[in-house]
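User: These chains co-purify. Model them together.
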Amino acid sequence: MVLSKRLTYWYLHNKRDLPWRKTHEPYHIWLSEIMLQQTRIEQGLPYYYKFIEAYPSVFDLAKAPADDVLKLWQGLGYYSRARNLHETAKFVAFELNGVFPDSFKGLLKLKGVGDYTASAIASICYDEPVAVVDGNVYRVLARIFGIDTPINSTAGIKEFKKLAQELLDKKDPATFNQAIMEFGALHCKPQNPKCGTCPFNDKCLALKNDRIKELPVKLKKTKVKKRFFNYLVFNIDDEKTILEQRTGKGIWNGLYQFPLIESNALIDEADLMKMEDFQASISNLKIELSLFNEDPVIHKLSHQHLFTRFWVVNSNEDIENSIQLQRVQDYPVPVLIENFLNDYLPDAYK
DNA sequence: AAAGCGGGGAG
DNA sequence: CTCCCAGCTTT
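Assistant: Joint model of the three components:
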């Protein structure tokens, strides 16, 4: 039997009941696909529900303030996705009269939509025969066909896309694409794949050659960089503080945080007082410093470990641009800040 | 071609 | 601890 037939048979009997599988509306499919980029379904699911409730149509999303969108995205990570999501919503709503492009080529032009996402939307919404290649597809194909070309090499990306496109059921690309991904997620898993009950265990080259654990091949892991964050949590008359919005190309672009002093190592109060950035932050204020956490919080990102200390800067003099402490939770903040706030803010403020 | 971008779950 | 997740963009 051809691969696509076995795959779709497996899919029909094993697929999960997911909300975006009840619709072919481009807005909902697009929203789910952006959210699920590099994100597990279990993690993205609650966000999907939140977004379709807050923004039932692309027009609602387009009209929303950027900070509201980021706030709703808070905790999901890769925040450029949220910024691109909003940009694309505005483009579709205001430039395309709310109608999404109806082809792979057209979809590919949208911000935040790459080869995978354009293929997913085009196949699911418009039955266009374009194969998706996500992490699941790489794994399933690498194993069944015993391919050891690195999946994140230029050659690998080309090779796997070509193979997936050949295998694709051109008559029902929507089902095939979702089937191969679901199969990778539930059956041909990274660890402990269920080879014993696999519909392909008669032909899988990786199983035959005992290479399940080697495939797929992925090029080198990046090394983690250590950074040292000192947040200045201003406490003005026990009612106000300062937040700043992150800008630029680094982590958490667009999110808010307390004034940050970054150092090259863990520092004490005396070191902090000597730093120019710190002196500039407090200007001529009369302050009293207290360290909130002696043991730094180690916030782990994919490529960085952030050793973080929160310094409470008490003062009775007001500062320009200060905001009410209660208002802090209205701003989109990194999980690192959110966790701190849950420890720091009295219950009355939450 | 390589680097950068989050947070969380599984083993 | 390591690996990886319905990847994309920038350099």
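The first strand of chain A starts at residue 225 and ends at 236.
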